[in-house]
Amino acid sequence: MHFEILVEDQSGKKALEILIPKIIGDEHTFNIHSYKGIGRIPKNLKGNPANISKRILLERLPKLLEGYGKTFFHLQNENYSAAVIVICDLDDKCLKAFRAELNVILDNCNPKPTTRFCIAIEEGEAWFLGDIPAIKAAYPKAKNNFLSKYQNDSICGTWECLADAVYKGGAVTLASKGWQAVGREKSLWAENICPKMNIENNNSPSFNYLIQKLKELL
Predict the structure, then answer these.
(1) Integer angstrom CA distances of residue 108 from 41, 66, 102, 103, 119
(2) Which of 79, 100, 113, 121 could form a disulfide with 153 if both were Cys (CB 3.0 to 4.6 A apart)?
(3) In Å, what is the CA distance from 70 to each residue of 27, 112, 157, 218?
(4) Which domains does the chain have, with CATH numbers?
(5) Residue 45's pLDDT is what?
(6) DSSP the chain
(7) How far is Cα 42 from Cα 36, in angstroms, rounded to an integer?
(8) Could you report the per-residue pLDDT of 154-197, keeping only the tens digit for each?
(9) Which of 121, 62, 46 is nearest to 87 (CA)?
(10) Global pTM?
């Protein structure tokens, strides 16, 4: 099985480069494509060619899925099977409505690529916070009071919760340095925490959903 994995940012790519092999094993293949933010689904579902250089995930998604549908259709045979995995953050959106919008994009493809939408709730850091032992292994001085009060997959300011636990000065100090600094720190969290994560024991429902969908396809 081959997977084309689309993720909204560089820190997500770093995390998945470590986590995906743990889930699918060595006999399967994958490519991970990162974008520069999530953006919005285009109203006409055709995307805006002027925005291609910006690499915004949802703005590109209709064209991307349409292209994968045609490519997979020509390549698919008894010895080759491929799927698209779209991974993005829920942020403050309604999960049911957002998933429905994504499915409309897929339904407009002819042929449709085999696709699964896996949404981190609220943000990708929720998957790290689903494995507190991994965080403490990567950051032995992590503050238990912040880790213990986190409720898995809650809408609560997820990256801020992790920053408060592991970053000197917490989320306020990190945010004051600007979004580029936040992005760099998120990438460091991915690099440090993901190798310690146990994919068989994670308390994040949205992370377990990703694992379930990948294993179903395999």
Answers:
(1) 13, 8, 10, 9, 20
(2) 121
(3) 25, 8, 39, 21
(4) 2-123+200-217 (3.40.50), 125-196 (no CATH)
(5) 65
(6) -EEEEEESSHHHHHHHHHHHHHHH-SSSEEEEEE-S------TTSS--GGGGGG--HHHHHHHHHHHHHHHHHHH-BTTB-EEEEEEEE-TTS-HHHHHHHHHHHHHT-SSPPPEEEEEESS-THHHHHT-HHHHHHH-TT--HHHHHHPPTT-SS-HHHHHHHHHSTTHHHHHHTT-HHHHHHHHHHHHHHHGGG--TTS---HHHHHHHHHHHHH-
(7) 16
(8) 999 999 999 999 999 999 999 999 999 999 999 999 999 999 99
(9) 121
(10) 0.92
Residue indicated by tokens 């997977």: 3
